[in-house]
Design a protein that fits this description.
homodimer; alpha+beta; 17 helices; about 45% helix; about 20% strand
């Protein structure tokens, strides 16, 4: 019988009772701003679509171009430009405000519509018999930021989402420079919100996040731009995702030592400014439950205060419709082994100092 | 770096543009009623929780006990007792009717509540400011059937969901006998709807489905019971799942040559009465998109008419929020290779006859 093996290790195991019911393979890279890999678990050179995990990189153009200054954008508007938001009132208002400052309205958003991630917001729309609009799309803040950048640069705000639009060419260049790797035009995919998404190895993504966390390896203007974006997200973690969601909780608890951003299909990236590190992981099958559980485990190994701050995410209990505890999501043995080995290699740790 | 390999082959690949963005490993067993394996791709002896895929087996007690006759249940009520339904009006009415014939009401349902699978039904509840009730739970028909069996047998209808209740002990015995394998009490898990779920190897599940599709290998009373359940599902495919859902579409198009039932965490089972075969598959990571895509591919290899009937499921286009085609889900090379080899071995095929 033919067999093609998955080449990445099992990073998370989903238990029901005493048995593993499901398992999630994947890969993780941790790197510094020079691209030195501190951890490479699984195939970190395989290209993955980072999807929404790189929204902070896509938002660099908004600040670096001068658009944020011209339009007098506040920290909350920069945060929502980096967000995969829940579509609650607070998010919708921040996006509307960003658009208004750029002289535009919702009709320019090319992201398409979906029901808000927030059940409360969805219930409210359904209660009044309304359908979701583009502004409720989790990506509407990113799109509003791109529209503001296009307006400031004198570019056509129609078609801003297309790969051949000058703004997208500029953003692709920023991603390439920040991650220190050439993009492959033939590999480009179209994202859920219709923007281009560029496949990148996890190793390069991790280096890019080390750079946006520290500014190291970036030109001064770009270093200042990523610092403003970080400050926006650290000031308004609720706007980066939403109530009860991983990224909001993690940034709220651990900023300024941590910036995290998830993307669709099991991607999650993080910047750890104090440690000078960046992290990128992808679950092979695309499961969000696994990327969050795995990231919590890695963060707990990197930041001592993360173990208590992310206790619920590490516990990862699974309850059924009557609230009975029926299982849990656990870190896989290969992940735990790799993190134990990583511990000794961390900057400032006894093991590293002794070498 | 430590590596623990996933031991099952990649069965489905999720493309975005030209790149594989995500991949799903898993295992498939196809067997006849004697347990002879026609296909064993991946580890078909590893125990999996069949979850809702075995609702038709759990419903055998309802018919075999005489409860269905005593209460004068119709085909539609038997279908909803085997269902993971969408919670639309048609489903809720069938469950209410089943409960009423047994002299009970919704307050006896122990399945817990969740928003209906059907967006239309969910919108309708939200529009009038209501919360979902147990009757909307996709498992409410199964629970109503168990309650009817308990009433007919003179058992306490309170606590019917507990592993130690006489009805659940009876149902566990039926599952064990039908699949031809002893159950391991230590491995039992609790399902989303609070019922016991028993881990079984895919090979045994496939044999069980060959038996419920044909009646072969079953005592006459049980063979008659599964025939009545089949007829109920074939007569009312809409009640087995719901509009737009895989099981409803597949049964509607391919009955009486096919009965299919999916379960949570990437399990799908099928009975192919004309071929005398049963099928069971599990996606390692639990992804429904993969179990349906893989099942469509296997069915197309087994039933000539399935390729056109399941054309949309085989195409498996992925469209984004603006309706742009951004990718597709494809059968993995290992699956295609295994199915090509299977083709020659099928009963009635030239390859098989020539051997």
């Amino acid at each position: 019988m033919p067999k093609i093996e998955a080449d990445n290790p099992i990073l998370a195991e989903v238990f029901r009772g005493k048995l593993v019911e499901s398992r999630h393979a994947g890969a993780i890279a941790i790197a510094d701003a020079d691209g030195r890999l501190l951890l490479a678990l699984g195939d970190v050179e395989r290209k993955v679509f980072p999807r929404s995990a790189v929204k902070a990189l896509q938002a660099i153009a908004l600040v670096e171009s001068g658009a944020a200054d011209t339009f007098g954008l506040g920290e909350h508007e920069l945060a929502v430009a980096c967000a995969s938001h829940s579509g609650d009132r607070v998010h919708v208002e921040a996006v509307r405000s960003l658009l208004a400052k750029a002289g535009l309205d919702e009709s320019y958003l090319a992201c398409g519509a979906h029901w808000p991630v927030s059940e409360r917001a969805m219930r409210e729309l359904m209660r009044v018999g309304r359908r979701p609009q583009a502004i409720h799309n989790n990506c509407s803040g990113k799109h509003a930021g791109m529209l503001a950048a296009a307006m400031h640069l004198g570019l056509d705000p129609r078609g801003y989402e297309r790969p051949e639009h000058e703004l997208q060419i500029m953003i692709a260049g920023i991603i390439s420079e920040t991650c220190g790797i050439a993009l492959d035009p033939g590999g480009m995919g179209i994202d859920g919100c219709s923007l281009p998404t560029w496949p990148l190895p996890l190793a390069a993504l991790a280096r890019g996040f080390a750079r946006i966390g520290t500014g190291r390896g970036l030109q001064p203007a770009r270093a200042r731009a990523v610092e403003r974006l970080r400050q926006g997200c650290f000031g308004f973690p609720i706007l980066v995702a939403g109530e009860g969601r991983f990224d909001t909780m993690a940034i709220r608890a651990l900023a300024p030592d941590l910036f995290v951003k998830g993307g669709a299909e099991g991607v999650h990236c993080a910047a750890l400014p104090r440690l000078g590190l960046g992290l990128a992981l992808k679950i092979d099958d695309g499961a969000q439950r696994a990327d969050e559980r795995v990231l919590a485990e890695v963060l707990a190994a990197l930041l001592p205060e993360a173990r208590s701050a992310l206790a619920d995410q590490l516990e990862a209990e699974l309850c059924n419709w009557r609230g009975l505890r029926v299982g849990r999501i656990s870190a896989g043995p290969a992940l735990l082994q790799a993190l134990a080995a990583l511990d000794a290699a961390l900057p400032g740790k006894a093991g590293a100092a002794a070498r």
